[in-house]
């Protein structure tokens, strides 16, 4: 879980470098680098136009046998997110049957994919709310 926090802080630094306001929230207490995950606070950040990045959320989600993807989907559902962005290091995906939100899965190593995904451009694979892969 610590690696996800480290990745979150790196993503935050990259986004802030280009002028995007962000906040990192985590289930771990790490006052120096991230806020604790508080649903209302995350919603307030989103209302102010900030990007909220969740790191280390699997361990504190109350679901010890599920991975960080499951915890991210849970947080997205709690916040009413339009989509979950998942950067991976390969061009293929595993079939899944998630029904709660849209998931965009894209190759993290292809230059520009993070920006394109955040801007809503078509990149990677979209798995919609009905589980259809497009």
TrEMBL record:
The keyword Zinc-finger does not apply. Residues 2-106 form the Aspartate/glutamate/uridylate kinase domain. Pfam families: AA_kinase. Keywords: Pyrimidine biosynthesis. One of its GO terms (molecular function) is UMP kinase activity. One of its GO terms (biological process) is 'de novo' CTP biosynthetic process. Belongs to the UMP kinase family. This is UMP kinase. It comes from Colocasia esculenta (Wild taro).
């Amino acid at each position: 879980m610590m690696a996800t926090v480290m990745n979150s802080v790196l993503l935050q630094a990259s986004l802030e470098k280009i002028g995007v306001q962000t906040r990192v929230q985590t289930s771990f207490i790490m006052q120096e680098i991230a806020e604790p995950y508080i649903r209302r606070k995350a919603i307030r950040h989103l209302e102010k136009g900030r990007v909220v990045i969740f790191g280390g959320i699997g361990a504190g989600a109350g679901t010890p046998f599920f991975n960080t993807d499951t915890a991210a989907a849970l947080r997205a559902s709690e916040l009413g997110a339009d989509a979950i962005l998942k950067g991976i290091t390969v061009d293929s995906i595993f079939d899944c049957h998630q029904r709660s939100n849209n998931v965009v899965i894209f190759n993290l190593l292809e230059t520009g994919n993070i920006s394109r995904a955040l801007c809503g451009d078509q990149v990677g694979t979209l798995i919609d709310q009905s589980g259809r892969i497009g």
